[in-house]
């Protein structure tokens, strides 16, 4: 295994090993501070992070506002307060070593406002900002205004070229690096474009090489690229290290840091990671963001898949082969189904899926009365955690809506991620993970349920394993 040479990251030469930021209380000040203390780059999440009272107890994020707009403002305040708290913890834990970055999602709620609030309230504690989930044009301007480096997360050379031309060339001195996140291997939300096949993964080497070509054209030949998604044993990436075709390369790991002593996830979650098998993590498109995402295929995802399977197209009036009347709702308002659609609908009703819920695509989804109540309750309790949400139809505009019907085929992402992070049911919540998570069960490092400290993990990584 080749030695890992230090890279200049956010103004200091450090190990080219980066803890990937995972949102909603999964990458915290404690985990990122411990990672930075090893001489690498720790990353805490600035997405609705936890904050604490004077006695160090977590402040639950309960929303009291009567309207979505009021709850949205509460969420922004929680996010700023939590981000500052995590930055302070990370700074103390790092003991002045390494670098500390904050991860934010551009398509989350009020990201620009939250970035300003955290960077202002934690001046000097944060060295870099990583940002993906969309096209974060403004992150360069915001980070640069505080003298902080920025690290866009992209999944293609084409995406970086667009960001550079529109914005980044104006603030090139603070472009600390570019994170290439493999859209087929990374956990969480993935940057698959409409022209890419989710079932046909492309090798990352060629895509990163293409990214380096574009960066070199932009005068960024010496700017690091960080490979993210699918990184487990560094010996499997040895040909990337000191490779003149790729230039300076670092490695970002999101899944492996989940299983450390400092990781804040519940013990039951850590135990579950040790049991995963190949194929247990899969791509899906149920997210209210509209993006693909990778998560453990548990009861939560299975119910969403089954829900969408119980779906038929309808028409408001007789049209073409939509000739069969079907009553919907408490008032039995008629819609029109095809003969086959009516046969399917009546079959689901006999099975107990008696509630027909309309979707924005002129289909009906059939669920139990209990599931219908849960869906509507979650939609009504929306706190505006995204810039736009297909589940609740919230949007960050003057009207506060996407203008489309709320989609019952999705879910409240804020609710489920908060729940699983703080001890909720592992089978009834969204469990993000990278596609290599099954390797916990195969890697001898974790024999007999061994859980390392962050320092032990970073030492292990440097050996190639």
Write up what this structure looks like.
β17 and β18 form a beta hairpin. An 8-stranded parallel beta sheet has the order 3-11-10-8-7-6-5-4. It starts with 6 loop residues before the first strand and ends with a helix. The mean pLDDT is 94. It has 2 domains: 297 residues, Aldolase class I (TIM Barrel, Alpha-Beta Barrel); 123 residues, no CATH class. It has 465 residues and is of the alpha/beta class.
Summarize the entry for a quick read.
With 465 residues, the protein is of the alpha/beta class.
Mind telling me the C-alpha Rg? 23 Å
Mean pLDDT figure: 94
Fourth-tier CATH superfamily name of the largest domain: Aldolase class I
Q: Strand share of the residues?
A: 15-25%
Helix content class: 25-40%
Parts with pLDDT < 50 across at least 5 consecutive residues: none
What attributes characterize this protein structure?
alpha/beta, 2 domains, eight-stranded parallel beta sheet
Topology record:
Layout: E1 7-9, E2 12-14, E3 17-19, H1 29-37, E4 41-45, H2 68-94, E5 99-105, H3 111-121, E6 128-132, H4 139-145, E7 149-154, H5 157-166, E8 178-181, E9 188-190, H6 204-217, E10 225-228, E11 249-253, H7 267-273, E12 281-284, E13 292-296, H8 299-309, E14 311-313, E15 324-328, E16 333-337, H9 339-350, E17 355-358, E18 363-367, H10 369-380, H11 413-421, H12 439-442, H13 454-462
Parallel strand pairs: 3-11, 4-5, 5-6, 6-7, 7-8, 8-10, 10-11
Antiparallel strand pairs: 1-2, 9-13, 12-13, 14-18, 15-16, 17-18
Helix pairs in contact: 1-2, 2-3, 5-6
């Amino acid at each position: 295994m080749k030695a890992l040479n230090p890279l200049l990251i956010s103004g200091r030469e450090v190990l080219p090993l980066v803890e990937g930021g995972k949102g909603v209380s999964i990458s915290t000040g404690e985990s990122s501070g411990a990672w930075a203390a090893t001489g690498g780059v720790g990353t805490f999440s600035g997405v609705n992070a936890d904050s604490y009272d004077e006695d160090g107890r977590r402040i639950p994020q309960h929303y009291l506002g009567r309207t979505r707009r009021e709850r949205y403002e509460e969420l922004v305040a929680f996010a700023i307060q939590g981000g500052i708290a995590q930055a302070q913890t990370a700074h103390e834990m790092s003991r002045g070593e390494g670098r500390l970055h904050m991860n934010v999602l551009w398509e989350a709620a009020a990201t620009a406002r939250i970035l300003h609030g955290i960077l202002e309230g934690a001046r000097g504690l944060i060295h870099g900002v990583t940002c993906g989930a969309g096209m974060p044009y403004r992150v360069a301007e915001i980070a640069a205004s505080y003298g902080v480096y920025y690290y866009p997360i992209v999944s293609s050379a084409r995406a970086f070229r667009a960001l550079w031309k529109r914005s980044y060339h104006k603030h090139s001195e603070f472009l600390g690096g570019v994170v290439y996140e493999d859209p087929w291997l990374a956990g969480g939300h993935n940057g698959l474009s409409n022209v890419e096949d989710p079932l046909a993964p492309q090798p990352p080497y060629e895509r990163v090489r293409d990214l380096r070509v574009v960066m070199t054209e932009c005068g960024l030949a010496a700017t690091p690229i960080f490979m993210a998604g699918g990184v487990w044993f560094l010996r499997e990436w040895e040909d990337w290290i000191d490779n003149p075709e790729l230039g300076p390369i670092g490695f970002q790991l999101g899944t492996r840091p989940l299983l450390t002593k400092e990781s804040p996830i519940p013990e039951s979650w850590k135990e579950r990671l040790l049991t995963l098998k190949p194929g247990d993590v899969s791509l899906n498109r149920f997210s209210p963001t509209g993006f693909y995402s990778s998560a453990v295929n548990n009861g939560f995802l299975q119910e969403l898949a089954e829900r969408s399977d119980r779906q038929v197209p309808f028409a408001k009036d007789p049209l073409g082969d939509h000739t069969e009347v079907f009553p919907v709702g408490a008032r039995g308002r008629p819609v029109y189904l095809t003969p086959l659609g009516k046969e399917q609908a009546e079959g689901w009703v006999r099975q107990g899926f008696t509630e027909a819920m309309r979707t924005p695509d002129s289909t009906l989804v059939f669920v139990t009365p209990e599931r219908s109540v849960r869906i509507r309750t979650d939609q009504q309790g929306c706190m505006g955690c995204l810039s736009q949400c297909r589940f609740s139809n919230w949007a960050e505009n003057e009207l506060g809506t996407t203008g489309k019907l709320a989609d019952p085929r999705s879910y409240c992402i804020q609710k489920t991620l908060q729940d699983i992070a703080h001890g909720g049911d592992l089978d009834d919540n969204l469990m993000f993970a990278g596609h290599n998570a099954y390797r916990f069960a195969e890697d001898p490092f974790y024999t007999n349920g061994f859980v390392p400290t962050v320092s032990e993990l970073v030492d292990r990584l440097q050996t190639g394993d």
